[in-house]
Description:
Bound molecules: adenosine-5'-diphosphate
Order of helices and strands: EHEHEHEHEHEHEHEHEHEEHH
Number of strands: 11
Shape: elongated
Strand order of the largest sheet: 3-2-1-4-5-10-11
CATH topology of the largest domain: Rossmann fold
Amino acid sequence: MKRIGVxxxxxxxxxxxxxxxxxxxxxxxxxxxxxxxxxxxxGLISGQIKKLELGSVGDIIHRGGTMLYTARCEEFKTExxxxxxxxxxxxxxxEGLVVIGGDGSYxxxxxxxxxxFPCVGVPGTIDNDIPGTDFTIGFDTALNTVIDAIDKIRDxxxxxxxxxxxxxxxxxxxxxxxxxxxxxxxxxxxxxxxxHDMEDVVARLKxxxxxxxxxxxxxxxxxxxxxxxFGQKIQEATNLETRVSVLGYIQRGGSPTAxxxxxxxxxxARAVELLLEGKGGRAVGIQNNALVDHDILEILDQAHTVDxxxxxxxxxxxx
Length: 319
Ligand code: ADP
């Protein structure tokens, strides 16, 4: 293999730049040329492809977002779109592709692999919802952003003796809510992977209030429904003054944490090694702090799960 490509796709996450840098530097270290594909699969179809040099990825390791930009592309879900993408790759003499993104992006990489074009997936998403890896790139940074917000809200919650509902990202995965709720000392955490009983939530709030708690923090993953509506229901049921904060897109941005930069560097470099070993159709990950790779098809067949023991612990610690 003499020339590979790299793209970022789907929702961006902090640390994607560090992953792109690792791919480029690792490839050049092995005398392989690297081409950057801009704007995900959309740029792949339209041929927005440029050679990257060592200096192209200088000064990006600490930046959020992605220097290659990202996009969502409906056309790439069609076989015609995928064939156009492969034509572009062949036109530029690219023989293997690193796809940095979430599960949707992995589906695109899977299709390219099925058409005979070797791809390796690198998990870049704040949601931590990709099977086959303990952590995805960007999750730790997003968590720290949420913790910062919870700590600030806690200050004002205490001053005013209010209940605060904080809605965090996670349409299908409760990892951000669970980890940030545990780290932020939330009284209640609601995630899509676990049933919640409104009466139990209300009883816990009332119990806390009766024993003199000055405030309560409830973390709600967006997948369980609107935080605003949930806050209204809580206020009606408890008669406690309740406010809602929807954190939204701030969770996607910011300078990546050291953890995410190291993770991105390790995973990006490993993806290049796999292509050089002639292994396409793989997804890299980290499990028990060791680099692993799995068949990308198998990854997509698995359901993401949250750590139920952590969920139980969060309940035990917030009695
Ligand atoms: P993420 O990668 O963050 O999960 P999306 O789900 O939006 O984000 O997927 C990103 C892009 O991956 C889509 O816009 C599309 O171009 C491509 N993609 C998603 N699903 C498929 C699929 N089934 N087949 C081919 N390409 C897909």
